[in-house]
Amino acid sequence: MQDYVYKKQISAFRYMQSVTDSEVKQIAVIEYYNDYAMQKYTYNKQFSAKNYMKNVTDREIKQIAYREYPNDYSMQKYIYDKQLSAKNYMKSVTNSSAKAKARREYPNDYSMQKYTYDKLAY
After folding, report:
1. Helices 73-92 and 59-68 meet at what angle, rounded to 10?
2. Which domain holds residue 107?
3. E strand or H helix at 122, and its extent?
4. Which of 45, 68, 86, 103 has CB 3.0 to 4.6 Å from 110, enough for a Cys bridge?
5. Are residues 49 and 81 in the same domain?
6. CB distance 98 to 121 below 8 Å
7. 92 neighbors 86 (Cβ within 8 angstroms)
């Protein structure tokens, strides 16, 4: 098992030496200073999410995600997807009084609007 872990760490160390996005590398190194395998995993996850966030189209939702997690692309992606889904859901709901109350209570959080709406409407 030690040999397996050693080889995995060496491989990940070499990989981390070759990565090109220094900002994302810094996120990974700060999060897992002594674990190269986790740095590699984190780097790949953050790098993928960063590229995803570059191509999103809803600026309002992107700002919400960035405001909540300015230094974590993976969480930005998660929040973006969650908020966008909830925003689209709120566009389709029909109970106008429940919708208005949810919007009043959470004007900048579509996920909470959805949660509130679902509690009020059903």
Report:
1. 140
2. 72-122
3. none
4. 86
5. no
6. yes
7. no
Domain count, the chain: 2
DSSP 20: -
What DSSP string runs through 54-109? Answer: HT---HHHHHHHHHH-TT-HHHHHHHHHHHHHHHHHHHH---HHHHHHHHHH-TT-
Helix runs in 19-58, H state only:
22-31, 36-54
Tokens 């700060």 sit on residue: 30
- Residue 32 domain-assigned (yes or no): yes
Per-residue pLDDT of the chain (122 residues; tens, 9 = 90+): 999 999 999 999 999 999 999 999 999 999 999 999 999 999 999 999 999 999 999 999 999 999 999 999 999 999 999 999 999 999 999 999 999 999 999 999 999 999 999 999 87
